[in-house]
Amino acid sequence: MSNNVVNSYRHVSAFDPNSISDLWAWYQADTSFMTLSGSNITAWNPQTDLTAKQLIADSTGVAPTTSTYNSRGIASFDGTEWMHTNDDTYLVSQPLTFAFVAKILDSQDTTIFDDDSTAGGRRILCRADATSGRYHLIDGSYFYSATVPATADAWATQVICVNGSSSFWRINGGNENTGTYTDTINPLTIFANYSGNFDATGDLMHFIMYTKAVTGTELTDLESWMATEAGI
Length: 232
What we know:
Blueprint: H1 3-8, E1 23-28, E2 34-37, E3 40-44, E4 55-56, E5 65-69, E6 72-78, E7 83-85, E8 92-93, E9 96-104, E10 111-114, E11 124-129, E12 134-139, E13 141-144, E14 155-162, E15 164-171, E16 174-181, E17 184-185, E18 189-190, E19 201-210, H2 216-230
Antiparallel strand pairs: 1-19, 2-3, 3-4, 4-7, 5-6, 6-19, 7-18, 8-17, 9-14, 9-19, 10-11, 10-18, 11-12, 12-13, 14-15, 15-16
């Protein structure tokens, strides 16, 4: 058999977040990446740099629980639970891309993630308005998503690229809103702000971050993969 024929039969690896370069961390809500106390998630390892970027719960009282949806693992937060990185000393500057698959319950001004350690200058992604389905980042000024009421109490994919005047926000593969935003991260907190309040209620399947602007085919491939994971 010729080499060309052999090559045609070679397996082509399926896409996943590792297929895109400059992956900073990918938190997949699978129990194989978690430390559990019963059903409580006390530690959550990403698939890269497991020690420095591990998410931890300060106690079982604030630890989310593990469950499943669409045959995928999920982390369920009840509005009083949150996790943060166990190393708060790093600093990562833009361009950054955040991508996640989540279902956020219909509530106002609740945090999905926070990437700053200062009480007054938190960078928070939260529900801005329960009826309009709009989200925003806070950093002294506001960077809003488009209006997407269909995401209330429903699974959705979101991609936020923080890249100066080329920043953009996409929900479910569209609804793009562009603007200017600057950001660094230090540290990362999931489903609450750094001080552990304004907690969100909902489920998280994947949280992914890249230290570059993810655009073009990489962006659409990532969105398609996330949508399939959530059965959207």
